[in-house]
From TrEMBL:
<dbReference type="InterPro" id="IPR038494">
    <property type="entry name" value="IGPD_sf"/>
</dbReference>
<dbReference type="InterPro" id="IPR020568">
    <property type="entry name" value="Ribosomal_Su5_D2-typ_SF"/>
</dbReference>
<comment type="pathway">
    <text>Amino-acid biosynthesis; L-histidine biosynthesis; L-histidine from 5-phospho-alpha-D-ribose 1-diphosphate: step 6/9.</text>
</comment>
<dbReference type="GO" id="GO:0004424">
    <property type="term" value="F:imidazoleglycerol-phosphate dehydratase activity"/>
</dbReference>
<protein>
    <recommendedName>
        <fullName>Imidazoleglycerol-phosphate dehydratase</fullName>
        <ecNumber>4.2.1.19</ecNumber>
    </recommendedName>
</protein>
<dbReference type="InterPro" id="IPR000807">
    <property type="entry name" value="ImidazoleglycerolP_deHydtase"/>
</dbReference>
<comment type="similarity">
    <text>Belongs to the imidazoleglycerol-phosphate dehydratase family.</text>
</comment>
<dbReference type="GO" id="GO:0005737">
    <property type="term" value="C:cytoplasm"/>
</dbReference>
<keyword id="KW-0028">Amino-acid biosynthesis</keyword>
<keyword id="KW-0456">Lyase</keyword>
<keyword id="KW-0963">Cytoplasm</keyword>
<dbReference type="Pfam" id="PF00475">
    <property type="entry name" value="IGPD"/>
</dbReference>
<keyword id="KW-0368">Histidine biosynthesis</keyword>
<dbReference type="GO" id="GO:0000105">
    <property type="term" value="P:L-histidine biosynthetic process"/>
</dbReference>
<dbReference type="InterPro" id="IPR020565">
    <property type="entry name" value="ImidazoleglycerP_deHydtase_CS"/>
</dbReference>
Amino acid sequence: MRSANLNRTTLETEISLTLAIDGSGRVNVDTGIGFFDHMLDAFCRFAHFDLEIKAGGDLKVDQHHLVEDCGIVLGQALKEALGDKSGIERVGDCLFPMDEALVQVAADISNRGFLVWKVDCPEGMVGDFPVEMAEEFFRALATNAGITLHICMLDGKNRHHILEALFKATGRAFGLAVRKNSHVDGVPSTKGSL
C-alpha cells in the first residue's frame, strides 16, 4: 500500500499525519478548526485517501499557520506515498457542481509544484475558517507534493458551497491522478522521469 507517516513540529504548530492513497476515504482529523476538518474529510472521501491528522497550533493568533502547515505536511506525505510515481495516471481533472457553485480543477503530478488560483469567493468566514486560507492550503499542498494544480471557480455565491466544491473537486482530481494504470509502463513522462 502506498502510504506515508509524517510529523512536523515548529514553534507555531505540531502535526502528526498518516496518509494511505490506496484507501477508501476513511478519515480521522482533528485540527481544532471544525470547518477545515470537514473540508479535509470531503477532500479524502472524493480522492479515496485514508487520512489521519492530529494537529495543534497557535489558533489564539489565527488559523493561518495551522492550515498552511497542514498543507505542507499533506503535500510531503503525498509525495512520499507516490514513491517513484511509476504506473500512475499522473493527471486528473474534475468539473464539480454544488448547488449554485461550479468549480473546475486540474492536477498534474509533474514534480513541478505550482498553483493557479482563479477563485472569486466572497470574503469572510465559513464557521471558524477564513475563506482566504483555502488558497494558502492548496498552495502549500501543491508546492510540497510537486503537483501543478489549477483551481477555477466558474460560478457560485455561497462561501460554504464554493469551498466544499473546491475541496471535493481537488480530491477527485488527485484520486484520478494517483490511480495506477496497468497500461502505463514506468513513469508517464516523455523525459523518462518526474
